[in-house]
Amino acid sequence: MIERYTRRAMGAIWTDENKYRYWLRVEAAASAVLAEDDVIPAEAAEAIAKKATVSATRVQEIEAEVKHDVIAFTTAVADSLKAQGLDAESRWLHYGLTSNDIVDTAQALQIKEASALIREGITALLAVLKRRALEFKHTPTIGRTHGIHAEPTTFGLKLLNWYAEMERNLKRFDAAAEDMRVGKLSGAVGTFGHLSPKQEEKVCERLRLKPALVATQVIQRDRHAAYIATLAIIGSTLDKIAVEVRHLQRTEVREAQEYFSEKQKGSSAMPHKKNPITSEQISGLARVLRGNAQAALENVPLWHERDISHSSVERIIFPDSTILVDYLLAKTTDLIDRLLVYPERMKKNLESTGGLIFSGQLLLDLAEAGMLREDAYRLVQGHAMRAWKEDLNFREEVARDAAIAKLLSAERLAAAFDYTRQLGNVDAIFKRVLGS
C-alpha cells in the first residue's frame, strides 16, 4: 500500500524485516519443541533462538539467485549462525518442516498483530458514534426513502444505526480474526510425515496460536477469504456512512458537512467550494477492499494439496486490506467526531413541503375517524399530488377540505402534523441498542 494511506504502526507489521522476524520466531519455537523431545540437540535450539539473525536485504540477495524465498531465508539464517562458528547447530534449522509450515504460521502471527490494531480502530469509532448519537438523539430531521422526503426521524437515529452496524462488524471481525489464529506444522501434504501432531500443538501453544485440525501443505483459504471479506464489509459500512455525509453536504440539503479548516481550500478554480473530500476518499478506498475480497475468494480452490496461485495474491491483499481498514477507521472516526451538524437547516428542510410528509398520519387518522381506507388514501393523495405539482401548502389545502373537516376537528387535524407524535419511540430504540 502506498505511504499516503498507511499509518505507521500498521505499516510496520507488513515490512519484510518484520515478516522474516516472524518466520525466525516460528523456526525457533519449532526447534525448541524438537529439542524438548530429543529430536535435535538442545544446543542447536538455543543457538537458533538466541544467536540466529536475519536481514531482509540478505534474503533478497539470495532469493535473486535461488528464486525461492523460504530457501533464501533459511540460507541467510544459517549463514548468520555459521558466521558465529555455529556450523553444527545451523544444520538443525528448519528440521522436519516445509515452507508453508513457516509461512502460514508466521502469517497468522502478523494477522493477529494487525487485528489488534483494527479492533482498536473499531472500538474508537464505536465510542464516537455513540457519543454523537446521544448528542443528537432528539434532533428532528427528515427521513428520506428513494431520495425523497418520507417521514420524520432524528439525526441521532442515523448515528445509532451506524453504531449498531459497527457493533455487528466488531462481532464478525472478532470471529474472523479468531478463525485466523491458527498455525500448522504438518509437513508437505499435511500428514505429519516428520513432526507429530503433538509437536505441532506444542509449537502453536508457544506462539499462542491454535493448530489447524487438518491441513494440506497450507492452511485452507476459506479462513483467509472470510477474514478479507469481513474487512470489506467493514469498509462498506464506512462507505455507507461517507455516502450519507456526502448527500447531507449537498448545497440544496446542507444538513451536515465535513469539518473545513481555516486554511483549507476546496477548489483551484472556485473559492467558495467546500467539498466532502474525506467522505469521497472513504468511498473510493472501500472499493479496493471489496475488490480484494473477490481475490480472496478466488484463492480458496487450490490444486490438490497445494499450489502457489494464492501466494502472490496474499502478498498484496493482506497488507493492503489491513492497512486500508486501519486508515479508513481512523478517517471515519475523525469525520464523525468533527462533523458539523445544522439542526436549524434540518428543521427547515423537514418543513419545506408544507406538511406533505404527514400524509401517512393523516390517512390513518381519517381511517380511525370512520372513512374507508381506500377513500381516505384517494382523498389524501389527491391533495398531496396537487400540492406537489402546484407548490401549494398541503396542510392548508387539507384544512379547507369539507370531507376532512367533517371527521377531524381542528385540534385533531393539527395533531396529524405534529412530528413529535411520530418520534415518541426514539428513547425506546436507543434503549434497545444501548441498554439502560
3D shape: elongated
Residue ranges: pLDDT <50 for 5 or more in a row? none
Count of individual beta strands = 6
Distance between the termini: 43 Å
Please state roughly what percent of the residues sit in beta strands, choosing from under 5%, 5-15%, 15-25%, 25-35%, 35-45% or over 45%. Answer: under 5%
User: Oligomeric form of this entry?
Assistant: single chain
Strand order of the largest sheet: 1-2
Count, helices? 20
Major sheet characteristics: 2 strands, antiparallel
Secondary-structure class: mainly alpha
Give the proportion of residues in helices: 55-70%
Order of secondary-structure elements: HHHHHHHEEHEHEHEHHEHHHHHHHH
Overall average pLDDT:
95
Indicate the radius of gyration in whole angstroms. Answer: 31 Å
Primary descriptors:
mainly alpha; two-stranded antiparallel sheet; two-stranded parallel ribbon; 436 residues
Layout of helices and strands:
Elements lengths: L7 H6 L2 H21 L5 H9 L5 H11 L2 H14 L4 H4 L8 H37 L4 E6 L2 E7 H25 L2 E2 L13 H10 L3 E2 L10 H27 L7 E2 L19 H22 L10 H29 L2 E2 L1 H8 L8 H11 L3 H18 L3 H6 L2 H6 L2 H7 L2 H4 L3 H9 L2
Parallel strand pairs: 3-4
Antiparallel strand pairs: 1-2, 5-6
Helix pairs in contact: 2-3, 2-7, 2-9, 4-5, 7-8, 7-12, 8-10, 10-11, 10-12, 11-12, 14-15
